[in-house]
Amino acid sequence: MVLIHRPGGAFPHGWCSQAAMVRLTKITDYALLLMALMARRPGEAPFTSRDLAGLTGISPPMVSKILKLLAREGFLRSTRGANGGYSLASDPLDITVAALIERLEGPVTLTVCSAHDASGCPIEDFCPVSSPLQRINRVVIDTLSNITLAELAEPEGTLPARRWSRGSAAVAATKTG
Ligand code: SF4
Question: Which of 29, 51, 101, 116 has its CA 20 to 30 A from that of 60?
């Protein structure tokens, strides 16, 4: 995850100054969406890239790339054959958002001094905000660790309902056709 608080920049003595947005990469963002969608429709598994591209509007090559990555990381199981595709490898209740983000992006680290191997900031010993920002980092990690894929997949998720229902028809057509 992107650092929001880095030492160096315009301030002397290494004070944090280079603020950056804390933002998931597009791949992680889409991975969460695809997995939430699969969790929400367990009876329709396995899903093909085409199914999921049709459901979400994400380009098929991007969906395919993310599904392969998720399978490689153990989040998805892939089955071959005419009715093959991808399905969740674990119960959605057992997959946390933190686990997925950390696997795809590395540790959630808001500041250099919040990293497990914190050694990159030269002023940590006398930095007045190091401790509170490390506390915030722990709160973020705890929050992400307490949200499961099952929760992301709840109907009141952020994906517009019309997209889900349109995709629903697309999947039904794919499976029966
Ligand atoms: S000690 Fe931590 S919070 Fe303080 S400047 Fe360095 S990285 Fe930022």
Answer: 101
